Amino acid sequence: MIADPVVKRRPTPSSTNRQLDDQEVRSPQQRSTAPPRGLVQTDSPNFLCSSLPQHWRCNKTLPRAFTVVALGNDVPDGVVVTVMAGNEDNSSAELRNATATMKQGYAHFNDLRFIGRSGRGETD
């Protein structure tokens, strides 16, 4: 099966209607400066994710599914999404169930768990 991609081309906007065209291209989430409730901005302007609790015990399920949201239509359904986490003390936390599949712009991690220590405790 061979898919023939459809390429949409927009005419080059003039300087008088440039601002209107930029606003039309943006999704509703991008027009607002604040992300939707329960979601936070990431280092990438094209993705939002669920907020995490301030403190969480290791190897416990989060209180709600962790979600990654792709803004726009750049990420097709079926793409495998892997999340990584870290903080100032531990740049690469050990995670369990850190992969999910993108579907309609959302990747839901139903049982994401932080394994091991957070890196906050000093042992000398």
TrEMBL record:
Q: Which GO terms describe its biological process?
A: chondrocyte differentiation; hemopoiesis; neuron differentiation; ossification; regulation of cell differentiation
Q: Specify the signal sequence span.
A: none
GO CC annotation terms, alphabetical = nucleus
Cell compartments where the protein resides: Nucleus
Question: What is the top-level taxon of the source organism?
Answer: Eukaryota
Identify the keywords attached in UniProt to this record, alphabetized: Nucleus, Transcription, Transcription regulation
Q: What is its main location?
A: nucleus
- InterPro entries attached here? AML1_Runt, p53-like_TF_DNA-bd_sf, p53/RUNT-type_TF_DNA-bd_sf, Runt_dom
Q: Where is this region: Disordered?
A: 1-45
Give one GO term, molecular function aspect. Answer: DNA-binding transcription factor activity, RNA polymerase II-specific
Query: Which sequence ranges are marked TM in the entry?
Result: none
Q: Which residues form the Runt domain?
A: 27-124
Q: What is this protein called?
A: Runt-related transcription factor 1
